[in-house]
Amino acid sequence: MNELSDVVWSDILGYVRTQHRPIARAWFGQLQAGTLEQGRLTIRVANEAQLSYLREHCVRPFIEGAQAATGHLVTVEFSVSPELDVEPVGTQQASPEPPRFEGESVLLHLNPDYVFENFVVGPCNRLAHASCVAVSESPGAVYNPLFIHGSAGLGKTHLLQAICQKVLDRSPSTRVTYMSCETFVNHFIEAVEKGALHGFRYRYRHVDLLIVDDIQFLAARERTQEEFFHTFNTLYQLHKQIVLSADCRPSEIPTLEERLTSRFNWGLVAAIDPPCLETRMAIIRKKMKMRDMDLPEDVVMLLASRIKSNTRELEGALSRLRGIAALEGNRPVDIALARRALGHDDQGSPRHIHIQEIMSVVTERFGVKLSDLQGRRRSRSIALPRQVCMYLARELTGHSLNEIGGFFGGRDHTTVLHAHKLVEQRREQDVSFRSRLEQIEAALRQS
Ligand code: ADP
Ligand code: MG
Prior knowledge:
Strand order of the largest sheet: 5-6-7-4-8
Order of helices and strands: HEEHHEHHEHEHHEHEHEHHHHHHHHHH
Number of domains: 4
CATH class of the largest domain: Alpha Beta
Radius of gyration: 29 Å
CATH superfamily of the largest domain: P-loop containing nucleotide triphosphate hydrolases
Number of strands: 8
Distance between the termini: 81 Å
Structural class: alpha/beta
Mean pLDDT: 86
Bound molecules: adenosine-5'-diphosphate, magnesium ion
Number of helices: 20
């Protein structure tokens, strides 16, 4: 006689609970594994009500779970053991309207904040967002696979988890597997070591939606690539949805086999670019709302203009602001406090760059006079260097918009905002302008 180990039994229960959420019941915790003999697993149940519920709804899920956990062909039989009936188990628990299985999101490791409603759409991520929404509305039907790429902190994980949550909301019985590629690799290594490849394959090839985050982690892992290749093919042939993310396009993942690269390109490849200033501001406002924070507009602007490439850092800055405000007796966050939270002194300059230095480098590089920059003339030849000065003052010093405007001939804060935006846009679109700006910034840092 073979007693089933606790580990295997909890794997089976875990499988049924995650992969067959609608039929799972709270009282499954009371079930006990009996013996596993000649491919037949006995499961002991407390009473007749449970028995009939299990026989009617749960035979297949438990068979699948047992096969996944043991890696063998196993059938399952339920039998009543009245001694298990320690607390009254109301028959209502076997009623067709199930309590939602609470552990599900924990097991899937989904962040409840990562839903579409909390995602800010801008020009940088419009296609990626739209394709994720489309996939979540009809998995397997529109883009397969869907491949999202972009650098760290730009929202890939957020979008991938939003797909999971939307799919599960719409149709709770969908078998969803979401994981980081690292977990996939580790599971695979473990399965090889334990000789449990059959179970591993069963686990990954019997899903409706497979989402693997940070697939670049497959680089230089030959055997896992091979395994993933077969997983991919099986699911693809069954029209099951596959969603992948990476920090670069498929062809740029080093040492990824060509057959995988080409498959990753079969469906839709969508990029997420760094967010522009407006999108960064909108993201900050969204995060403020989620945290019930209230910040003045110039603070939002300060954060958005200082932190550009990684949205995660924006969130970090918001947390720091909140922390510092709390330390100071919950005083409202103003621009001075915000500058300190970002690691700058009250006078502003993080690298002790002064507006005068900016003006002197800009006048030199653009061949204009200092008096012109501070004067009222609006000709194009003056307007651009003046806007560049305002932009750099905004970026590199801690002065407020009004202070900067005042410096440049008594202009108000909207002029500075406008200048900042124009320069930012041009910086993104015009390569030679960008490199000119970078040279100026480098000169300022050295001075
Ligand atoms: P990645 O996986 O690309 O490294 P994440 O998805 O982990 O990035 O995003 C980092 C943080 O930034 C998360 O808290 C996420 O909610 C937030 N974030 C990124 N982009 C957006 C966006 N467009 N709207 C709202 N939040 C965003
Ligand atoms: Mg991520």
